[in-house]
Amino acid sequence: MLDDVLGWGGTLPRNRVLLVKDTVAASASFLLLYLLKKILATPDSLVIFVGLKEPFSHYSRIARKQGCNLAMHQDHGSLVYIDLLSKTILEHSSLPTDAAVINEGNKLILLFQKFIRILKEQPGRNTWIIIDDISLIEVIAQGNNAHVRDFLHYCRTLATDQQICSLLLLTHLDAYEDIDETMMANHLELLSDTVINVVPLVTGQAVDVHGQVIVEHKVPCNVNPNTCMDGFQNSRGYGLHYKLMENTVQFFTPGKHV
Amino acid sequence: MLSTYSVQIVLVAADRNPQFYHDFKGFTEDQLSRFYFVDCFVDPLGWRKILGDHQLLEEVTVRFPHYKVCHDVKDLDSLLMVVLQAGAEKAEAVKFAVVIDSISSLLAYNSLESVAKFINNLRSNGIVSSLVWMLHSELHDAKVMKSFEYISSMNISIEQLKAAVRQTDKSLQMVANKCFSEGILTLRHKRRNGRVREQVEKFEVHGSTMTFSKTEGTEAAKVIVPQVQFRLQLTDKERQERAKVILPFEHQGNGKETLIYDGRPEARSDISTIDLTKKDLQKVTIDDIKPGQVEYLRDSDDERPDSDEDPDDDLDI
């Protein structure tokens, strides 16, 4: 059901920027793995996963429960995992530590350079860059939001370039409640084509419903929604409730839990 | 601008890839041929140039006949020269228009003063016939917005229909429909004599076309009911019947003796035709009640006046 709402019922969309926002009360880690599994199941796809929050073993263990073997995909080359939890960004870069580059202060150019190198090594594939999560990218940038914006802008150029590349970014809805940070949250929304909000129920916690997923599409006006989004007739937002099971997640329309 | 005037346009693309405009189905081939694209999107800070110097990235290829890449948007003086040269090359000594998408991207790398100076230099240049720029209001504070509003002679603001059913309670959001294909367009035009004229219209986007319609005063405030499986609104008949219902304990206030309605249907008809006993109806006339005075009416005749009996004595506590 979420696939229909996202427009992923037929084929995976291309050159899209997806922003997933979650809260403390409703984490979107399940959604990240759900989408990752969906992408890896598509033939000729390539995932560049930037892990800042958890080690690879964590994602691998949870994905295996859901029937997806991340280690196998990594061995086959359809998953490239960039570990920024235990390694620094400099260790991933093949760019010489040129003083002119580093002196600009934005070390994230090294991560962008890593993306470019991977895309160059595997051209023509439907590539998805997944970043978990943006707030930890800010840590690498030492709190400099301008550097993060610059980095995301360049990532977005990859999504709109001639090569087939999409972005899936995870951030936290309640991390930007401070008035100075709302500009960053607005900026993230502005550069996204689709925004997915994972929020708890307004009425509180429940046994059968663990939260709600609200999907908002911002479709460019020269794209026909009927062709790229199965089941959509108009560019509007849709909400679904979800329940987390042991090995899977169920999505259903509000009030129609099976 | 494209359909009305045969003017050449220099498009400074900072928010979107110029390919987006080139692929836009709303433009004809003839209209597209009048564009000169200045690409500030693909490499605004020169990262691709740096990576290209290390043989890690190919140079950005020329995509359109009239196309130039700006590798440093922090240098607005150079960008100004690029725009003016592009216009001169395209228009060949005839005036041309400049469209900037968007100023917000330029403000991300430059100060308000330098961007305002850049705009003013374009405005004041005799060869630029018109200048159109876009600004995302959510990314800037009021000072930035007002600064650019004062510079411009016409402001167009686009916002969602105010009836969009979406309530935000800190980190919580209700499941709702948010319509992105329609909204309200407010046009503020400053005339040369100083008069400011404002116009509000509703617009709808259908694919690559937009339609405009007049909006009434209440249109923008009209509530859109969420799409649920049960009916939330009242029909006319239901509305009329609701208006007829007399609420209990409501004073009729029709000039006659004020009666407190006790909720029974018999009391709703003409009071004079009903034989009411003292127990059925408590009559309180307006003249009897003095301001600040409390009138106590005994529930029954059995109760002795001035009784000091505590009504809570029967409680076993």
TrEMBL record, chain A:
Top-level taxon: Eukaryota
Keyword Chloroplast (UniProt): yes
GO BP terms, alphabetized: tRNA wobble uridine modification
Coiled coil regions, renumbered to chain: none
Entry annotated with the keyword Magnesium: no
Classification via Gene3D superfamilies: P-loop containing nucleotide triphosphate hydrolases (3.40.50.300)
Key words of the record: Chloroplast, Plastid
Pfam families: ELP6
Pathway noted in the entry: tRNA modification; 5-methoxycarbonylmethyl-2-thiouridine-tRNA biosynthesis
InterPro entries in alphabetical order: ELP6 (IPR018627), P-loop_NTPase (IPR027417)
Gene Ontology cellular component annotations, sorted alphabetically: elongator holoenzyme complex
Similarity annotation: Belongs to the ELP6 family.
The protein, known as: Elongator complex protein 6
Organism the protein comes from: Ceratopteris richardii
From TrEMBL, chain B:
Subcellular location: Cytoplasm; Nucleus
One GO cellular component, as annotated: cytosol
Metabolic or biological pathway, per its Swiss-Prot or TrEMBL entry: tRNA modification; 5-methoxycarbonylmethyl-2-thiouridine-tRNA biosynthesis
Annotated keywords: Chloroplast, Cytoplasm, Nucleus, Plastid, tRNA processing
Residue ranges, annotated region (Disordered): 292-317
InterPro entries: Elp5, P-loop_NTPase
Keyword Acetylation: no
A GO BP entry: tRNA wobble uridine modification
CDD domains found in the cross-reference section: Elp5
The keyword Glycosyltransferase appears for this protein: no
Biased composition (Acidic residues): 302-317
Domain of life: Eukaryota
GO molecular function list: tRNA binding
Bias kind Basic and acidic residues: ranges: 292-301
Pfam families xref list: Elong_Iki1 (PF10483)
Family per similarity comment: Belongs to the ELP5 family.
Name of the protein in question: Elongator complex protein 5
Organism this protein belongs to: Ceratopteris richardii
